[in-house]
Design goal:
single chain; alpha+beta; SH3 type barrels; five-stranded antiparallel beta sheet; 1 helix; about 20% helix
């Protein structure tokens, strides 16, 4: 089973995005997704933004992860 992390895009430079996931910031690859902008929410797996999601999707993912932990 693969687990993705939801995060908010803070900034983008070239094909690298700085994301914020619950207060922790890190750089990830954003080259898979087109039209990614700061403020967008993404699902991250293995250091790669694999899908854009809505803010309500992000809230739901955080709730599920909170229940699991």
């Amino acid at each position: 089973m693969c687990v993705g992390l939801s995060a908010k895009v803070v900034s983008i430079k070239d094909q690298t995005a700085l994301i914020d996931a619950g207060g922790a910031q890190r750089e990830i690859s954003s080259g898979v997704l087109e039209d990614l902008e700061p403020g967008d929410y993404v699902m991250v797996h293995a250091g790669v933004a694999i899908a854009k999601i809505t803010s309500s999707d992000e809230d739901e993912a955080n709730d599920v992860m909170g229940d699991l932990l």
